[in-house]
Amino acid sequence: MTLILRATDLIKDTKPIYAHPSETVETAIKRMASHNIGSIPVVNEDMKIVGIITERDIVRLLASKGPTILQEKLENVMTRKLITANPEDPISALAYKMIEHGIRHLPVVDQEGKLLGVISIRKVLRHLIAGLEHP
Fold first, then answer.
1. Residue 1 — very low, low, confident or very high, per pLDDT cuts 50/70/90?
2. Using an 8 Å Cβ cutoff, are 87 and 108 in contact?
3. What pTM was computed for the model?
4. Phi (first) and psi of residue 50, to 5 degrees
5. 7-130: CATH superfamily
6. Is pLDDT above 90 for 88?
7. Domain regions of the chain by residue span
């Protein structure tokens, strides 16, 4: 019998790191750096995901608008069109979504849209490679 890994298996031992829409880009950068993560989901007071900001987003904002962007609120600059995963999505579906949409971080949300965790492409690859036979 083959065990199929699901999104919930990849986030079970982690606590989600997140920001709120009223926080600044600078605050998000500091939180990302302190937790060594490349993106941070933005959630409302009910823990429902309303956006995300990534390292790539921040670099583009700095290049186009300069350092004043650091004091901008996340609600004004976050990506609102979200690609998310369900807890029961198999690891192959996670990989497909990431490749298809060109993303490296995939928030996992419950049926109500509440943030459960974030899965990185590194974690997906690590688990996929672990299942392969080595030469």
1. very low
2. yes
3. 0.90
4. -120, -10
5. CBS-domain (3.10.580.10)
6. yes
7. 7-130
